[in-house]
Amino acid sequence: MGRLRFVPGEDEAFPVDADTQFNDVIADPKGRVFGGAMLEADELGDRYLTTALTDGDRSAEGALIRAPEVGVARVPEFHSQIVVDSAAAFSRLGRRAETRRPLRAAGSPFDAARPDDESHRTMLADDRNERMRGLTKVSRSRGAMELVDLERPSPGPDEALIEVDYAGLCGSDAGIYEFESAFERMELPTVIGHEYTGQVVETGPDVTRFAVGDRVVERPIRGCGHCYQCQLGEENVCQNAVITGVDHDGAYEGYVAVPETALHSVPEGMDPRHAALVEPTSIGARAVIENSRVRPGDRVFVAGPGPIGLLTAQIARSQGGEVVVAGVGSDTAYRLPLADEFGFQTVNVEADDLDSRRDELTDGVGYDVVFDTTGHPSGLTSAVEEVRKGGQIVLVGQTGETTMPYSPLVRAEIDLQCSYASMFEDFERSLRLIASGDVDHATFLDDRFSLLEADEAFEAFLAGETCKPVFDVSVLRD
Ligand SMILES: [Zn+2]
Ligand SMILES: [Zn+2]
Asked: pTM to 2 decimals?
């Protein structure tokens, strides 16, 4: 009762539960409804969803579930199972013509999805290793990252098991490498990494929105769902938030098990190396779109040409801002030239005369919006120098301690806004910003590094010799 199961694979068909009905609805991945579904009996008497009929019934109550081929099947909640012969459905829709494969032995797809079901495991695990390696923080000192042999996790009832394809290196991963104070709470050993993409290879029995074969990304900050902020829908500032790759094992490993509520679908055709960077993109998206007042024609100053700075800059430009990116001497090796490559005006705050650059670029007025992504104690004080009277400062980097006179902020009515982490909407927006090209990950990512020699990547990152390393995680399944 009330449970939806959906275990699609390429052109596979699935048995339909006896009380599934003819007027269920199929829609494509964008949620456009094709029409009512028709069930057919095959020679064994099992029924399969095979086609879509007239314009759909959008009022049908139910839940949405995704399937790679058919897209979304929508069924009333009282139906216990659904099913799609995706190839047949699509061929009738004129999308593709494929022959139907023989069906698996009788039994519901729900049963087939149980992790303890033998045939299911065989189907999924045939060519997959039960063991894997993970890049693990092993002790409370600088470096101390080791590749450790691990058992492949099993998904819990509401979890999907994800085979990780690519994962990015983030400033906070570098913070764990250096073992900064913010990470003292970590229990070790812990596999790190939180920005990644992969493919669902197994699902727990209660998973309804994702299926084997789906490409996904994870929202790595998870709210508890119960505290006051979670009740308000502010799970990024949950009182009990846990973070993947910090509070539990992360993505620098062959497989991760993740609650389906933390997953987002990756659109078909997106380069997985680009999809791996949805999480950092979402930080910039939240800072700019949710938390700043950048409008078309605004002059925007982004302090810090690190990963979050360059993403914030691109997204501010996508909103119509004229963006200047500022860095320091050590950024001239890689990050400021990268900002140049993106087409931003750049400033070296250690070499250039900031006052005259600001006057030249803003007609002597100052910037409408300043984003501080430096993570340096000077971030706020220098933002105050750059912002115009009546302008806005958005603090994204975590800058530690600073001392400054506040009266000038008050007298200039500066809007001081913080932006922390990201939420569901920021992820969905980021996927679209990447797909549209507003955020250019082909230029952004750096795939020169390997997880097998990860120290090189961390040292290069800390020295400013790279900006956004992206690792091929498949090496941890070899
Ligand atoms: Zn990150
Ligand atoms: Zn909470």
From this structure: 0.74
